[in-house]
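Input/output pair, single chain:
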Amino acid sequence: MTSANETASPRTPFFIDTHSHFDAAEFDADRDAEYARARSGGVTIQVVPSITRDNFAAVAATCERYPGCLPAWGMHPMLIATHRPEHLADLRAQIETQRPVAIGEIGLDFFVRELDPATQEHYYVEQLKIAREFDLPVLLHCRKSVDALLKHLRQIKVPGGIAHAFNGSAQQAAEFIKLGFKLGFGGAFTWPRALHLRQLAAELPLDAIVLETDSPDIPPVWIGRGRNAPGELPRIAAELALLRAMTTDELAQATTRNAQAVLKLG
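Output:
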């Protein structure tokens, strides 16, 4: 497995993609090529979160095959129809079999009205307890649900984590930061009309930001509606560096340091 201190080459910035569903079926036809492209661009580490109990095997196989792909185990809030109470025991067993870098992808999604909030909160809370039990950070899905997520985080103390695809207010960002969280930024802020997100990306403290792609989802503007991939992370970083009036190398160093700290890599 690749060390978090390894770089792709002396002249290539070292990036960590803190959220990549690289096991997804969208990569079945060209996963080797996309892995090579990401590595050549300096994306040395990808955090690959699971989304259901039945997804554990695919994530494990991906992380075994591709050095630098690190697993996170969790059950996604948008898939509550597939989750069962006994899957929480399976999650604990999976952690004991292969310790992850985080518990994720977990959280709440109040954007999709068909998803029962109470059921979502049940699985979110139970997975927070598991994260606390195993002393692991969490990767949070936080669409339209930041205040509810924070409420439970104040009650169930976990060792920080990442607010994935953060799009809340500056005040909510500050609350996450107080709890030891980093904020994930990827392709969404590259769209010119994403004015609020671009302002957050430009103005939030640099030591609170980590990079992500959410591959194959949340494509940057230059892809349009196409498939996102980990190899896009260097260009996403360059766009963020431009917003923050710094060099891409400076941004890479800072965001890599942030990801290493919150995920306990090194």
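The beta strands are 15-17, 43-49, 69-73, 102-109, 138-143, 161-164, 181-185, 209-211. The domain at 15-263 is CATH 3.20.20.140 (TIM Barrel).
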